[in-house]
Amino acid sequence: MANALTKSFIRLTTKLNPIAVGTKFFPTNSLETEYVELFNYTQTILFEIKKAEITSDTILQNLIRDVGAENLPKDYTFHELKAAENKIEEYALVSNIIMGSDRYFYIELPHPSRLIDIFVKIIQTEKGEIVEKTATELVAKMLSKNDAIRVAIELIGIGLSEGVQVISAVGMTGAASIERAIHYTQSVGSFPGIAFTKLGGEYALVFDSPFLLRESRPVDLENYLFIDLIDSTKFIDKNGRTQLVELMNGIKNFIETECEGELEGYREGGDDFIAKFPSKDLAIRAGLDAAWFALDNGAKIRAGIGRSRREAGERAQMVDDIDAAAPLSLVIFELANGLYAYNIPSEFTRTLINLVENEKPKLIGVFAFVFIFAYLMSIVGLGMFSFIGVILALVYALVA
Known about the structure:
By secondary structure, the protein is of the alpha+beta class. Helix content is 46%, strand content 21%. The protein contains 14 helices and 15 strands. The two termini are 22 Å apart. The model has no long low-confidence stretch (mean pLDDT 85).
């Protein structure tokens, strides 16, 4: 991870606040290893454009928005079991991008009941997968964390209407959801409710009185990715239009085949497009892969992710308003109530970062060379040519 000197250098050249360079996420399988290596090899930078304010109130507001107010009863209490830190943890973000959000959930009944079979049918109707089932317990896998929470609330309501207290919890794995349910009962008691995580904190919804939702249904949250090639005219002049078509088609094919994206209004030979995704983590992953692929082909992109086409386009256009030393290849997205961006730095920037991070003796030598060169040039009355020392030092740094 980046040291203070590296972050100061990045802040100076980009006018943005860097949270991390690369990632400290520890991979456990081939997919995770591939992405972690890309993050670290390209020294992908996570920027904070607008700081998220993470409190219990904002967590609840985001939950209501994501699950849908219509899928929550009027009477419930919101418990903070473990407060989230008021900052973004980059490794948790990387985990969410690579693995997706928590989507396993655990259901526990106080005694055997026919409800367990009714719950199985509801989960399967909601496109869930039953992982384990006993007379009093269920572990299921849903398409997303929000779907898991929404369906669990529906099942708790059905249980209350039958006089059965249902306890549930959501986790990254089946075991994690069971462990969270245990923590819930230790902290809150054996009251019907659901425990879950949000942004590093642990929370719970507890239901004190019977309720029956009119109809629980997924919230129609759209996830759009807007991609635009930076300075496409210059790219065409240097590489030709055929290379542009191959570059954009390469990004297009990856988004459709690997990221479940649906392209809208793409014109072959164009330098921009918009795509729709089933989840935000897939949209962010597609934006990152597009930026990495573009960098490998000598290009930069500006990308924005939003809940509407307009919002995604506006976030991509924010790249133009950033007063950086050079155009930045950015993927801008919302997190909680803040705005963040991944930047794929140029080869030159990566070289300088590597010098600061890993080649401190060489860096000290470069500064010493520049200082001595400038001093000697001033002695012989040629101080105006001191900049030549800086150029030589940069050439050495790049070649080395």
